[in-house]
Write the structure tokens for this entry.
Amino acid sequence: MNPKLLTVLCMSILFNLVSFSAHANTPDDQQPVHISADSLDIQDQKGISVYKGSVEITQGSLTLNGDTITIHHPDRALLSIDVIGQQARFKRFDVEEQAWIKGQADSINYNAQKKTLLLIGNAKVEQPGKHLITGPKLFYDTLNKTLKAQSTPQEKKRISVTLMPEAK
């Protein structure tokens, strides 16, 4: 694949993951995408790119980490990102809250059209110093700022929520 085309593809894939950087006033989607991995397999006609081996993707304040990250991009339009690993992790800065949001699970699926994250298996979403939610399955809607938590047939554990009192 042409290196210029690969760069354009990688940048366009993550442009839909919108948040603002804590370090600059430039939106994340206007910042460079950096990807590091041990290997890459692009199947352009299928619209799939698979990165393996301690994968890290960063764009502005957004960071995704996993053992394997699969990007689904039919017709070069981002559809979804699957992150798998021990543990798969994400981190992003929320401008409205002026705080970092961190999450981890055995697998994370990002739906680009709906702007949602599905965390499955030992899932955790945290705003450090404010709240911590853990459970087998967490569904985070970034547009509506809602979170749903539940157990799964494979992992029948209870949901745990820790809320910290507001500092006065």
In short: The chain has a mean pLDDT of 82. The beta strands are 33-36, 39-43, 48-59, 62-72, 80-94, 99-111, 116-127, 131-141, 146-150, 160-163.
